[in-house]
Design a protein that fits this description.
Strand content: 25-35%
Strand order of the largest sheet: 1-2-3-4
Number of helices: 6
Shape: globular
Largest sheet: 4 strands, antiparallel
Number of strands: 4
Low-confidence stretches: 18-27
Mean pLDDT: 81
Structural class: alpha+beta
Order of helices and strands: HHHHHHEEEE
Amino acid sequence: MIKPLLLIAALFSIVACSPSQEHSGNISSSESASLRSPELTSLGFLSAIYVDRDVDKAKLYVDESLKEILGHYYIASSVQRYVLNLSMTNVELEVDEVDIDFFRKFTDDVTVIVKIKGLRGGQEWIDDRTLRLHKRNGNWIIVEIMPEKRQVNG
């Protein structure tokens, strides 16, 4: 019951952002709102890479070291291939698991697993990616894209 509500809230916050906005170093109020939970931050980052294909937008959700890496690759397809090791199109995103509990406000380190459904090489594919986030100044920021331990399809 909570997953569909969380997904709807995440999609609403992502759709509410205008893709034509120019992004500076400052975070607008709608993007700042999506940094207030680890789930929305993770979905916002992956949506920027897979749906919007906008590396500059994705940089709003990561720390400085990941910003450097993303800046090195310039385009979303390169980030998909070399940073996330998963090139896909027609992507749907869903939060699969969050290693956090009721005491969320007392922790500053969280991992989020996001299920990614879409087309890979023209075939339907389901995979997931694990992101580590830290809470900084009240916002959740992605600090690491965890290496995959196994290959998933389904």
